[in-house]
Amino acid sequence: MTVRDAMGILDATVLVGEDNLDQEVRSACGSDMMSDVLAFSKDHSILLTGLCNPQVIRTAEMLDIVCIIFVRGKRPDDAVLDMARDRDLVVLSTQHRMFSSCGLLYKAGLGAGAFGGAL
Amino acid sequence: MAEAIRLTYEISPDDFTRAGEASSDVKKKLRSLGVSPDAIRKVAIAMYEGEINMVIHAEGGIITVDISPDKIVMILADKGPGIPDIEQAMQAGWSTAPNEIRSLGFGAGMGLPNMKKYTDEMTIDTVIGKGTTITMVVKI
Ligand SMILES: Nc1ncnc2c1ncn2[C@@H]1O[C@H](COP(=O)(O)OP(=O)(O)O)[C@@H](O)[C@H]1O
Ligand SMILES: [Mg+2]
């Protein structure tokens, strides 16, 4: 699916990266613990999180993540959004909670990638 | 890239929000040198975990990155408290991080295991009360 598809599925709004919504995404990872996210490395991924600090952006940067989706209507401050903009990330925000967000994307066919498979 | 290149970073312990800036810079430099995306990602993840550890467990330190045509060597040296039991520290889930660090997204005890997973070689030299030096190699 594309980032735009994921946005529709989650009724999400765009905070950063409106011009980059047609990128393909193939897998997703949802967590508030960044080291759990860093253990996961797949191309063309989405990161779903409820954590709003600069380390979320850095984690996405290290993993070449395409899109960050903040769940539960969270919105990081402008400094964090500027960091995302500098790194050409797409940032979305959805009112859905983590469990529902992951479930909706999964049901729509987005996988988690091969189990335990990183690099 | 015939010559080896050395990058050096001083990691400040004071500001958790800035932790990761060095890793971010290394990532940019490797990209401009044309290193493969796979190798860059391995270096970035391993160094970022190590940089975070220097900030949350060890009062900062110095990171040296040596880039040569066949490998990237990262040396993370701190003057922190040292690691009393390396085997235990390497276990997935083991962490001495305080709760406020966990609320910032770190302290899941996955940092050292991730560093090992994404590198081809990793050695830990540690002396209690004196500091820790972690050397990691990623082959290109
Ligand atoms: N540079 C360091 N200096 C001192 N102790 C460290 C250092 N790096 C790691 N440790 C110790 O090893 C433990 C495990 O590290 P890690 O796997 O990165 O997990 P976490 O950082 O989430 O606690 C830490 O909780 C800490 O006790
Ligand atoms: Mg750690």
Q: How would you characterize the overall build of this protein?
A:
- The complex is a heterodimer of chains A (119) and B (140).
- By secondary structure, chain A is an alpha/beta fold.
- Chain A has helices at residues 3-9, 34-38, 54-62, 78-86, 98-107; strands spanning 13-16, 27-30, 45-49, 67-70, 90-93.
- Chain A has a single domain, classed as Udp-n-acetylmuramoylalanyl-d-glutamate--2,6- Diaminopimelate Ligase, Chain: A, domain 1.
- Helices cover 34% and strands 18% of the residues of chain A.
- In chain A, helix 4 links the parallel strand 4 (67-70) and strand 5.
- Chain A is globular, with a radius of gyration of 13 Å.
- The model of chain A is unreliable at 114-119 (pLDDT under 50).
- Chain B has 140 residues and is an alpha+beta fold.
- Helix content of chain B is 36%, strand content 27%.
- Chain B has 5 helices and 5 strands, in the order βααββαααββ.
- In chain B, strands 1-2-3-5-4 form a 5-stranded antiparallel β-sheet, with helices on one face.
- The longest helix of chain B is centred in the middle third of the chain and has 21 residues, at 37-57.
- The chains are: A alpha/beta (119), B alpha+beta (140).
- The complex binds adenosine-5'-diphosphate and magnesium ion.
- Adenosine-5'-diphosphate binds next to helix 2 and helix 5 of chain B.
